[in-house]
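Task card 7
Instruction: Convert sequence to structure tokens.
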Amino acid sequence: MSRIISLLLVAYGAGAPALLAQCPDGSPPPCARTAAHAPAPNSIAVLYFNNISQDSNDVYLADGLTEEIISRLGQVERLVVKSRQTVIRYRTRTGEDPVSLGRVLGVGYLVNGSVQRSSARVRVRVELVSTVAGRYLWGRTFDRVDRDILAIEDDVAQAVASEIIGRLAPGERAGLTKRPTSSLAAYDHYLKGNFYLTRRESRQALNEYRAALRLDPASAAVLGRLGLAYGFLAGATFPGPGRDSLLSAGFAAANRSLAIDSTTVDGLLARGSLLVPAPDCPIEAPRCLQGAMDALRHALQIEPRNAETWHQYGRACFIAGRFNTADTALQTSLSLEPDRAASAWLLGQLYLLMRRFDEARAMVDSAIALGGSDDYTNTLLSDVKLAQAGARITQADVDSARRWLLRDTVAFLVFQITADARQGDSAAARAQLDTLVKRLPHLPENGPDYSGLLALAAGDIAVGSFDMGISLLERLPRNPYSWLWLQWPTWDSVRQDARFRQLEADVRPE
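Output:
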């Protein structure tokens, strides 16, 4: 249980997961959801452009151009644009029948393209296909010197949007032609940084964004992305001085971005995400969380269809105890990008804490289907199954847990202790608890996330040693994160205890 929460506190976002084909019931993720309806007439998917340059390293240019066009088209409210995370799954299927591929993606139009750089020139071929009629509608070839790549993006985005929705309003045209920098050399580094950032290769992304800033120090967009890169790297770093320094550097970049342009979505997203958690006020987390929610709400006012911002806003609301708002935000994130394993995973936790166990199971199944099976998702699955089974847990449940939890992990020991206790085998439960104690001799020094302390408390409470379990819980730090830990169903058997209620009141968020 505690490993899931600890990851929630430090994780900044989700990487590009290894995607599976379907949910356990055979339906496409998110699991247990309704089938797709007919595509909206203004819906579009921009498939990843092929790199046909002689230099295979130019793939960053093809990917970057694709992602920038997706981003620009996404600014037009009259268009329904599939996200990068959705279309990246189909990058090798461009030769398929457009009607079939359009049905799979649920869109009325597909954009295909290729990029070829040779010497100092770039050739970009683009075509628009109707997936409903199954016919080619429009195509163009842009053959320019490579310094015109920004102009090519402007032209492609405007041409595609105009073909689908007709005459563009001035505001729509401005959004389609907004540039992160006017320097072509800086933009090349920016594209490379984005290429690495989407793959969570954060150190390489940092290097490229720094190179871009040396050429254009006043680019708010690049500074915002730099802040995001620092945040992703911090999320993959164990809590301590190293992570705090990364978070501080991320704040500096985000604040510089917003000082230049207070409406920069990446700057607001970086600041909001970095504030959960902030390195300088772990005890005063309500202030940090409120700052995070304020920044993320501002970002959503500017760009309301940004799935990552909705995810981070839901995450901040979850930690702040605003569960209903978190539910809405995370559902919105998933509706915009149904392939977001991180949002499904977080909804699984949220529904578990809200005691909506069947929905929690459906979301965990979605997270597994989308992102594969890892320790954190499997631990959450075990907690959901324990909550679903209640007092009716069987040996079959234990045998099933062995298939997704390694037998010698702390998570499995807690599962086994709980199962033995609920089956009435107190001797076996206490023997397993002794094994757990030997595994975790130093508390709470065994980790800043207090995972060992929470595991031992869960074991003690499972075997009926309520006073010992609550004594361990009383050693938790006094902040809203501890309040979140205390909402886990693990503690329901002692939730009415006077000491537990006092502890919960002491750490409740404002």
